[in-house]
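Example 3.
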Amino acid sequence: MVVGEKQNLNENEEVAAIDETVEEVEETVSEIEQLTKELEETQDRYLRVQAELANIQKRNAKERQDAAKYRSQVLANELLPVVDNLERALEIEVEDEKALNLKKGVEMVYNSFVEALKSEGIEVINPVNEPFDPNFHMSIQVQALEEGQEADTVVSVVQKGYSLKDRVLRPAMVIVAQ
Amino acid sequence: MVVGEKQNLNENEEVAAIDETVEEVEETVSEIEQLTKELEETQDRYLRVQAELANIQKRNAKERQDAAKYRSQVLANELLPVVDNLERALEIEVEDEKALNLKKGVEMVYNSFVEALKSEGIEVINPVNEPFDPNFHMSIQVQALEEGQEADTVVSVVQKGYSLKDRVLRPAMVIVAQ
């Protein structure tokens, strides 16, 4: 082997070594880029699922609050005809003492019934002589305005309405003067 | 500059270059390690918050279900004394026609009241002649066993109890034969 050849070989080896190093560096750079990309994506996913979690908790708190606020709505709706019928029964006039006792008892029941509903935020809508309000009243008949009456006044409540907090369970059925 | 010095300088430069490369490689390795660690930690955090999200959604669904299931409990508890008083009023005996009409009306109200409660899963506990069950009955008096009676039988219900689905709102107050 001549000197020139050896040098040539050495140079080739060096070039090969440099090529290998360049390849390794490229691989390393690509690995770092890949890792950085994956890390950013995972961080992004993490932040998004965390935000989702916060939203869900907020929404659930609101739902829980609403569910508690209006929890009595279904039972109240079932009970409104019961209260109506109790009122109707109390319109029956009686005379003898035992019957008056019964009526007095039923009146007390009626009052405690209304109180029990009130304690859960269920209130009577009974707007006699009040201005007609379509949010809470349903006009089922119109009557000619008499002297001294304001227009759009409720002159008679045919069936009482009921509200549950800020919701109307049933509007009052009314006769309006116009 | 002598040849030896120049060679020495070259060697020094090479050593410095090698040192620098070693340092760079070490830094790169450490960077990759750091990135890998951060990626693993972030992935771990992501998985944990995702699991937490799944748990919270499951728990919320259960809470919503329970809230719906027992939604009428508060109003029902308020209404039990009303039903009691209605029953008590109906024990008053009357004779004349108008009073009988009133009583009939109130009986219908009572029945529709009990039906309205039932539609929300509220049931009467009235265990006359049934075996005493401490889960649903409260013994307020014990009576000597009479002939033909089984021990631990409810002989009389002093106050009816009520249940809401699988919950007891109020146990029945009973007299038990022993």
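Chain A has two domains: 1-69, 73-177. Strands of chain A lie at 122-125, 137-143, 153-159, 161-164, 167-170, 172-177.
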